[in-house]
Design a protein that fits this description.
- There is one protein chain.
- The chain has a single domain, classed as Protein Binding, DinI Protein, Chain A.
- Helices cover about 75% and strands about 5% of the residues.
- It has helices at about 1-20, 30-35, 35-50, 50-75, 80-135, 155-165; strands spanning about 25, 140.
- The chain has a two-stranded parallel ribbon.
- The relative contact order is 0.19.
């Protein structure tokens, strides 16, 4: 444990000493990612890709609700065989919904991760571009720091570059 504390202290003093000679910037990746126009475009793209499957799930749920409401309404006049048939039908429908819902979520999450990895690569390129333009020697992730002055924050510059790229 003490080795790690010494290592962290050494790293902090090295960075602090290097700060006098080097230009250090900080970027809030989460801030940039969630405000980038490409992020909105990704969400719209995914919504479009999965719209049909989402509507199918909604339709199946409505069908189940309709069957259940009809069964409750006609319960007094139904035979035991009809009740069992409706019960089986609802169980099969629920199993179908559960399966389709699970695959929908898995597929959506997979595609979402693919698109976000691509966006993260684009953000990284823009961070590097801002770093080169501003002649920064070191760029740190804001989430890893306890405190940073606003003067060191380049997040808005990176976001401006992403805005200039468009969707």
């Amino acid at each position: 444990m003490n080795k790690y504390l010494v290592l962290i202290a050494l790293l902090v003093t090295t960075i602090a000493g290097a700060n006098a000679a080097n230009k250090i910037g900080v970027v809030d990746i989460q801030y940039v990612l969630t405000r980038a126009p490409q992020y909105v475009a990704i969400n719209e793209k995914l919504k479009g890709e999965f719209k049909e499957r989402s509507e199918e799930l909604r339709s199946l749920a409505e069908k189940g609700q309709s069957i259940q409401e009809n069964a409750q309404k006609n319960e007094a006049t139904m035979s035991e065989q009809e009740r069992q048939q409706i019960s089986r039908q609802l169980q099969e429908l629920q199993a179908q919904i559960t399966f389709k819902e699970k695959t929908f979520k898995e597929d959506y999450n997979r595609r979402s991760q693919e698109e976000r990895r691509t966006l993260f690569g684009l953000v990284s390129q823009q961070v590097e571009a801002v770093a080169k333009e501003g002649q920064y020697d070191l760029i740190l992730n804001r989430e890893a720091l306890l405190y940073v002055s606003d003067a060191s924050n380049i997040s808005d510059k990176v976001l401006a570059k992403l805005n200039a790229l468009g969707n």
